[in-house]
Write a structure and sequence with these properties.
Elements: H1 10-26, H2 30-55, H3 64-80, H4 85-107, H5 112-131, H6 136-139, E1 145-146, E2 151-152, E3 155-156, H7 160-183, H8 185-195, H9 197-202, H10 207-233, E4 235-236, H11 243-256, H12 262-280, H13 287-301, H14 305-321, H15 333-342, H16 354-359, E5 378-387, E6 390-400, E7 405-409, H17 416-424, E8 431-436, E9 439-440, H18 446-451, E10 454-456, H19 469-475, H20 485-490, H21 493-512, H22 529-541, E11 547-551, H23 559-574, E12 578-582, H24 586-592, E13 595-600, E14 603-608, H25 610-614, H26 617-624, E15 642-643, E16 649-651, E17 663-672, E18 675-685, E19 690-694, H27 701-708, E20 718-721, E21 724-725, H28 730-736, E22 738-741, H29 753-758, H30 769-778, H31 780-785, H32 795-807, E23 813-817, H33 825-842, E24 845-849, H34 853-859, E25 862-867, E26 870-871, E27 875-879, H35 880-885
Length: 887
């Protein structure tokens, strides 16, 4: 429903304002002009709300409170203090901004729902305050107070064209401020916060501060709207500023188009013009109903509101006329070369005084000194993290030497990302310490660690889709994210210098990665996944870090893109940056890493060079589920996969179930965010058989299951169940007979065991008593725990709940993702035996995904091996170890 923020919105705003300026020449009637005045007053506050919601991602249902603050403060100062109207107006606007900042400092700590509800009740409380006696001396209480009657010479500003153009000037000022805000660092930072708060913090952005600044700006613009409303109505009373007005204001922004600036102006005109037309026409008795239908139609038909409709018409007109949007290739090579000469190179080691970080002083004056002998750049000691009864990390010890690339590998759930979260400050450890350059980092927030020299990327880049590549990188390249939003709006010389320096660093970062200059002006939403990974790395190194943390930089990439990322990582290392990288792609690790640490169940099990670590017997057991000796298949001609013990080649049949029954996938392609994850996949699962899908992380196993369940959009190919095409909506897939146990089990921690299980029956008939009895016999432990909250149970018990929930509807096909994740061998064996028993007795086909090849080979009737989104060759030439260890 909500459109994304737009970057190039200046011209639409100018066009709309110009039309409003010319409107009195066309509409000479007093009624139409009065409606337009009311529209412009609301639009002034709506522009501010658009900045708050469309650009920083915060919701306010009490924005009319700031209208009241601006209007009452101005009127009270004129009435009681004798200030001139223009001076009182400025103070009223400032007061609204200050009140917004004070209230926001409490509200931004709440989650979305809490903040939205908080602003709603804030509006209700404001009406009670205005009606009360505590401030009655200034506000007049229930009696209200008169508004000022401003004039410019002989021109009255409370009626006629004087009021109209005075209100238009106020709207122009509000629009100019909003347009300026979205162009400066503060506005760009707010957009990163909207995209992903954790990513924003890792980029050095003080998330809470940016949220408060957006509230202050929105509150000040609402205060300006309140002052103009006072001039229009002439008298202030509490009823003027009710909760309904705040809801109207939010509706105006949504109908006009969030993240557009011009949209809320158009929305306000549409809103009040329709209200006026309905209230004076033959349909006035049902005007409220018709008005609601019109608003609903706009929102449903045009997800981005009226602004979205305008964009569609413009695009259609361009197609008709053959006009194309001009493309800019970014800075010229000569200019970029000149910029690079101005910057200190990345080759020198960067160090920061952590004492300055703790003291809140400027931390960007770096001491470029070699580390003392024997002191690693990063040292992790006895690091443990517990989530309830689960040990995510257990006494992890890790050292990273200056200048090296150190890789962290391990299966899903091993604790890799949790380790990076502890180092970057996202997750507080239960016990243990993290040191940078010999100094402990304990207690430092994410933004402070970034200033100390730790930069971070994430598995999902979270770029601002409608900002260019260069703009996305620039926001991560500011030396400091501090400063006042008002000085940025004023464009002081200091702010201009900061902006030039950040842009220069962004240019250097992109050049370091050899990112094509012709793509610098491309919007991030139009990039391939591989390009987005490069931009994410560039955004991180733009801050000239000491230590770069990379989380799965090769996830979802093809072979060529993986090779490109490997070259980029090596170039960053050559520029003097130390790198700690999580990677599932073992071939990538072999290519780039100097040392490697392997995690399993939150503990370090091997460390050394990639060859040493990957050659460790325990590492082989983790990835293959066997000690190099994998059991052979059954008799010749059996459909079970054959695993040869010497070099682990794989062969298997791929016969379809008899009579076309069961699940059949033919030539399936799946693309996510521009990256092709599944390419030409074909497999079958018959009723009553268990089929395994093996492969390393990132091979496409989970995506395959999600595509079957329609949780991911299927591209080319055919997916059918019992000869009929499988629907493309997840709920329809479930009703057709496909149940899905997702990775991580999908348990609702606050619901009881019984309530979790019954979720498997939503929209379906009750199971027959015979099936229920069999399940109760198969899962006796759950019967004893059915009144317990599921979040208090062990991982094995939660896995049992997930399987029970999937089986209770007696599906035709059960999809199980990462069966072994977080389970001990004994618990895992019990779970698989139960699954096999129920599957074969009830005729349920099971497709189980797991990295543990031994597990699959022991229980599955047939197996498939996925490698980079494709089924690997099965004629005996495929090497299972190669699929896992060569990437």
């Amino acid at each position: 429903m909500l459109s994304r923020a737009r970057d190039h919105v200046g011209w639409p705003v100018l066009i709309v304002l110009a039309l409003l300026a010319l409107a009195p020449l066309v509409f000479t009637g007093a009624t139409v002009q009065s409606v337009l005045v009311q529209s412009m007053i609301y639009a002034t506050g709506a522009v501010g709300l658009d900045v708050l919601t469309g650009y920083s991602g915060q919701y306010s249902f009490g924005q009319f409170v700031y209208f009241a603050v601006g209007a009452y403060v101005m009127s009270a100062l004129v009435l009681h203090a004798g200030l001139p109207w223009w001076g009182a107006l400025l103070i009223g606007v400032a007061a609204a901004g200050i009140v917004a900042g004070i209230l926001a400092s409490a509200l931004v700590r709440l989650r979305f729902f809490g903040a939205a509800v908080g602003t709603f009740f804030m509006g209700a409380a404001a009406v009670d305050v205005l009606n009360g006696t505590r401030l009655a001396r200034w506000t007049g209480g229930t009696s209200g107070i008169p508004a000022p009657t401003p004039a410019l010479g002989s021109l009255s500003l409370i009626e006629g064209k004087g009021l109209y153009y005075f209100t238009l000037v106020g709207l122009v000022i509000a629009s100019a401020v909003a347009l300026r805000y979205i162009k400066v660092r503060g506005g760009t930072a707010a957009r990163v916060v909207k995209e992903n708060e954790t990513v924003a913090a890792a980029a050095g952005i003080r998330v809470g501060r940016e949220k408060i600044r957006a509230h202050v700006l929105a509150g000040a613009l609402a205060g300006l709207g309140g002052c103009m409303l006072a001039f229009d109505i002439g008298f202030l009373s509490p009823d003027t500023f009710g909760v309904n007005q705040s809801i109207y204001l939010f509706a105006i922004v949504v109908v006009g188009g969030l993240g557009s600036i011009a949209g809320p102006i158009v929305g306000a005109v549409f809103f009040f013009m329709i209200i006026n037309a309905l209230s004076t026409g033959a349909t006035s008795s049902s005007s409220g109903f018709i008005f609601s239908l019109l608003l609903l139609a706009v929102v449903v038909l045009f997800h981005g509101g009226l602004y979205d409709l305008g964009e569609r018409l413009v695009r259609q007109a361009r197609r008709w006329t053959g006009l194309a949007r001009p493309v800019h290739d970014g800075p010229s090579p000569a200019a970029a070369s000149a910029v690079s000469r101005l910057l200190p190179g990345l080759a020198a080691l960067r160090r920061t005084s952590l004492d300055r970080v703790r003291g809140g002083e400027e931390t960007d004056r770096l001491v470029r000194e070699p580390l003392p002998a024997g002191v690693p750049l990063l040292r992790v000691r006895d690091l443990s993290v517990r989530f309830g009864g689960v040990n995510a990390l257990s006494d992890v010890a890790l050292t990273v030497q200056s200048g090296e690339i150190h890789a962290i590998i391990g299966p899903n759930g091993a604790g890799k990302t949790t380790l990076l979260n502890c180092i970057s400050g996202i997750q507080a450890p239960t016990t243990g310490t993290v040191e940078l350059g010999g100094r402990p980092l304990g207690g430092l927030p994410v933004s402070a660690r970034r200033r100390a020299g730790i930069a971070r990327t994430f598995q999902h880049p979270s770029l601002v889709a409608d900002l260019t590549v260069l703009d996305n990188v620039t926001i991560g390249a500011f030396e400091s994210q501090d400063g006042s939003v008002w000085t940025e709006l004023a464009d002081t010389p200091q702010k201009r210098r900061r902006r030039r320096m950040a842009r220069s660093r962004a240019v250097t970062a992109l050049d370091t990665l050899e990112f094509p200059r012709r793509r610098w002006s491309t919007q991030a939403g139009d990039l391939t996944m591989g390009e987005q990974k490069h931009v994410d790395i560039a955004r991180a190194i733009g801050s000239r870090p000491v230590l770069l943390l990379l989380d799965e930089p090769t996830a979802g990439l093809g072979a060529e893109e993986v090779a490109a990322v490997a070259r980029a990582v090596k170039s960053v290392q050559e520029s003097g940056v130390t790198i700690l990288v999580i990677a599932h792609h073992v071939g990538f690790v072999r290519d780039v890493a100097d040392r490697c640490t392997v995690l399993d169940f939150g503990a370090v099990i091997a460390t050394g060079t990639p060859q040493e670590a990957l050659g460790d017997k325990r590492v082989t057991e983790i990835f293959l589920g066997a000690e190099q000796q994998v059991p052979r298949g059954r008799e010749a001609g059996d459909e079970r996969v054959v695993l040869v013990t010497e070099d682990l080649p794989v062969a298997a049949t791929k016969q379809a179930p008899p009579g076309g029954a069961g699940l059949v996938i033919e030539d399936l392609y799946v693309q996510i965010s521009g990256a092709r994850i599944i390419e030409g996949l074909s497999l079958t699962v018959g009723g009553g058989e268990i089929v395994g899908l093996a492969g390393r992380n990132g091979a496409g196993k989970t995506t395959t299951l999600r595509a079957i369940s329609a949780l991911e959009s299927r591209g080319r190919g055919r997916v059918s169940l019992d000869g009929k095409p499988l629907p493309t909506a997840p709920d329809s897939v479930a009703r057709a007979g496909v149940a899905h146990v997702p990775e991580g089990r999908g348990i609702f921690a606050d619901l009881t065991v019984e309530e979790n299980i019954r979720l498997g029956l939503v929209g379906r008939a009750e199971p027959d008593p015979e099936l229920r009895s069999r399940l109760e016999a198969a899962f006796p432990a759950l019967e004893k725990l059915k009144r317990q909250k599921a979040g208090r149970l062990s991982g094995g018990e939660q896995q049992m709940i997930a399987l029970y929930r999937g089986l209770i509807s007696r599906p035709r096909i059960l999809l199980v993702d990462e069966m072994s994740l977080g389970l001990s061998p004994r618990v895992l064996k019990n779970a698989m035996e139960l699954l096999a028993t129920i599957s074969r007795s009830e005729g349920i086909g099971v497709l189980v995904v797991d990295q543990n090849v031994r597990l699959l080979s022991e229980y599955c009737d047939r197996m498939y091996l996925l490698k980079d989104g494709r089924v690997a060759p099965w004629e005996g030439a495929s090497d299972l170890a190669s699929a896992y260890f060569d990437g």
